[in-house]
């Protein structure tokens, strides 16, 4: 009997050890998942320039053409093309900038040209017969743009991936109001020229220049919740980055005091106090938190939140929790901010 019991006892012991081992491995796995879920970034808060180049040429308007015979023409009228459409090809030739379009239209000598354009992700084909204007050049009557530029705030640099994010919202075309569909772009240094204070009913702005700016990185995407890309000038980033902080989940954010990192003078980044008034945990857009500027020093300089501050990083309990995105027109000290976890996804 004893000979039969012993193997059973050994089997039970082995099973217990196996179960404990599984539990140990499970705990290790849970710790690894928890650890890998944490992300760290270097908040920046510095004003930068953004140069964006469209994937084709963007139609931003239409106008009549004064023909060389004194009559007025609208050659585009039957084409179906509208503001916001992106011209991709003419006569089968890819168009990447306005000069290419001008050259092809001029070389048509007034013959009908075929056009491929994009609207809401759909490719459409049409044709237009160019009109000869008073100056002898052939034209379509379309106003087009192939690039956009401006200044904003660099939110963070993620050292682990060598990537950056800026603005906390997308860049839209000034004429069409649509999110700009880009092929690529550049993040460059900028110089602040002046600051216009915001007042009730009228937003202010940070005025700056980006001519001859030093390249910081390459812009890869322009989205509804920010502009993203890869840092190429690591030395420059290392010279301006803040201490690395853990990225907070939205359920860690509390109403009450927080800090923003902001640049209002050239080569000078400072911290200012704000208050988080409301948190919208189920927000689907970049208006996730209602915030208020409480720092009188900042208010005296800007009047509150002004264009150019979009992307300003927000810190609470020594964690990166989000970035400023919008200002309330009738209350310039108040505005909205995006969650860090949303911006990083």
Describe the structure.
The structure is a single chain. By secondary structure, the protein is of the alpha+beta class. It folds into two domains: 40-52 and 147-344, Thrombin, subunit H, CATH 2.40.10; 64-140, PDZ domain (Pdz3 Domain, Roll). Helix content is 19%, strand content 46%. It has helices at 2-37, 98-106, 234-240, 296-302, 340-344, and strands at residues 40-62, 65-66, 72-73, 86-90, 93-94, 113-119, 122-128, 131-132, 138-139, 142-158, 163-166, 182-189, 191-196, 205-209, 215-223, 226-231, 245-247, 256-265, 268-279, 289-293, 313-316, 319-328, 331-339. It has a 17-stranded mixed β-sheet that branches. It has a two-stranded antiparallel ribbon with strand order 2-3. Strand 22 and strand 23 form a beta hairpin. The longest helix is centred in the N-terminal third of the chain and has 36 residues, at 2-37.
Key features?
alpha+beta, 17-stranded mixed β-sheet, Pdz3 Domain, 2 domains, 345 residues, Thrombin, subunit H, 5 helices, disordered N terminus, single chain, two-stranded antiparallel sheet
């Amino acid at each position: 009997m004893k000979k039969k019991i012993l193997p059973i006892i050994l089997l039970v012991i082995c099973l217990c050890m196996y179960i404990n081992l599984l539990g140990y491995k499970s705990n290790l796995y849970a710790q690894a998942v928890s650890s890998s879920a944490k992300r760290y970034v270097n908040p920046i808060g510095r004003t930068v320039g953004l140069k964006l180049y469209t994937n084709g040429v963007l139609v931003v308007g239409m106008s009549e053409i004064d023909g060389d015979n004194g009559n007025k023409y609208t050659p585009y009228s039957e084409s179906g093309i509208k503001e916001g459409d992106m011209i991709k090809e003419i006569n089968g030739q890819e168009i990447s900038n306005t000069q290419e379009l001008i050259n092809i239209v001029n070389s048509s000598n007034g013959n009908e040209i075929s056009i491929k354009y994009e609207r809401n992700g759909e490719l459409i084909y049409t044709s237009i017969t160019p009109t000869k204007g008073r100056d002898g050049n052939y034209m379509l009557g379309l106003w087009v743009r192939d690039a956009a530029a401006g200044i904003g705030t660099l939110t963070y640099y993620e050292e682990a991936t060598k990537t950056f994010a800026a603005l906390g919202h997308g860049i839209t075309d000034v004429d069409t109001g649509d999110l700009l569909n880009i092929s690529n772009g550049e993040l460059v240094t900028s110089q602040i020229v002046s600051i216009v204070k915001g007042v009730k009913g009228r937003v202010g702005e940070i005025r700056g220049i980006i001519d001859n700016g030093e390249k910081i990185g390459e812009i890869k995407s322009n989205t509804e919740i920010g502009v993203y890309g890869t840092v190429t000038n690591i030395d420059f980033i290392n010279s301006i980055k803040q201490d690395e902080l853990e990225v907070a989940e939205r359920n860690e954010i509390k109403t009450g005091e927080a800090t923003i990192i902001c640049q209002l003078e050239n080569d000078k980044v400072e911290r200012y106090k704000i208050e988080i008034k409301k948190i919208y945990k189920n927000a689907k857009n970049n208006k996730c938190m209602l915030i208020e500027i409480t720092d009188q020093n900042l208010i005296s300089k800007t009047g509150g939140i002004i264009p150019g501050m979009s992307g300003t990083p927000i810190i609470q309990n020594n964690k990166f929790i989000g970035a400023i995105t919008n200002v309330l027109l009738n209350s310039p000290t108040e505005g909205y901010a995006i969650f860090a976890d949303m911006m990083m996804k």
